[in-house]
């Protein structure tokens, strides 16, 4: 009996637990980076069936994510049958909701995307540099060199200084620095935010 026939059989029988559908061996996977577990294929079907103890399989609803903006509300056997037809894995995304959310995707490409997202930098760090009113020229050069190093690493720099130094600092900013917005002036103090061009 082929996989489609088994999927069709499980949609017609209401009292049986869904049979093994011949999915690949990966039924439970753990990502090592953040230890989040995803249920895949048969383990997913068993977990959903266990949650809905009293319902027959064709009455168990799942929300299927196929594309970034497209969702479908299907019965569990229909989702299984669709994944078998398209030769994709059924991956549990959020099983704690009233209607479990599953996704149809190749298991290895899903893991690759998850690893790529977790290794990407979360956000840019903001570095603050304070300048004193009577700063020496050499010290000002050193502070601006520090700004250049921070910008090369992709950080955002906030320079806090007295209003007297604003024009001098704006003229001596490194060429790689770009103002994020006009300088903020509060009384005798000024603040500028810069990022790399």
UniProtKB/TrEMBL annotation:
Q: Which InterPro entries match?
A: T_IF-3_C_sf, T_IF-3_N_sf, Translation_initiation_fac_3, Translation_initiation_fac_3_N
Keyword Zinc-finger included in the entry's annotation: no
GO annotation terms (biological process): ribosome disassembly
Q: Cite a single GO MF annotation.
A: translation initiation factor activity
A Pfam entry, by short name: IF3_N
Q: Where is the Translation initiation factor 3 N-terminal domain?
A: 61-118
Q: What is the protein's name according to its record?
A: Translation initiation factor 3 N-terminal domain-containing protein
Instruction: List the source organism.
Output: Fistulifera solaris
């Amino acid at each position: 009996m082929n996989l489609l026939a088994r999927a069709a059989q499980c949609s017609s029988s209401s009292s049986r637990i869904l049979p093994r559908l011949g999915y690949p061996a990966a039924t439970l996977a753990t990502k090592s980076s953040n230890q989040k577990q995803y249920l895949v294929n048969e383990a997913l079907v068993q977990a959903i069936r266990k949650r809905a103890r009293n319902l027959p399989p064709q009455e168990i609803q799942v929300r299927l994510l196929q594309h970034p903006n497209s969702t479908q509300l299907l019965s569990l056997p229909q989702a299984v049958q669709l994944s078998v037809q398209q030769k994709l894995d059924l991956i549990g995304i959020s099983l704690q909701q009233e209607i479990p959310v599953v996704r149809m995707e190749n298991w290895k490409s899903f893991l690759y995307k998850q690893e790529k997202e977790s290794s990407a930098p979360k956000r840019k760090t903001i570095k603050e540099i304070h300048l004193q009113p009577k700063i020496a020229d050499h010290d000002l050069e050193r502070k601006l060199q520090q700004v250049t190093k921070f910008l090369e690493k992709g950080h955002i720099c906030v320079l806090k200084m007295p209003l007297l130094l604003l024009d001098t600092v704006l003229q001596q900013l490194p060429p790689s620095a770009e103002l994020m917005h006009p300088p903020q002036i509060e009384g005798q103090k000024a603040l500028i935010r810069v990022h790399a061009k």
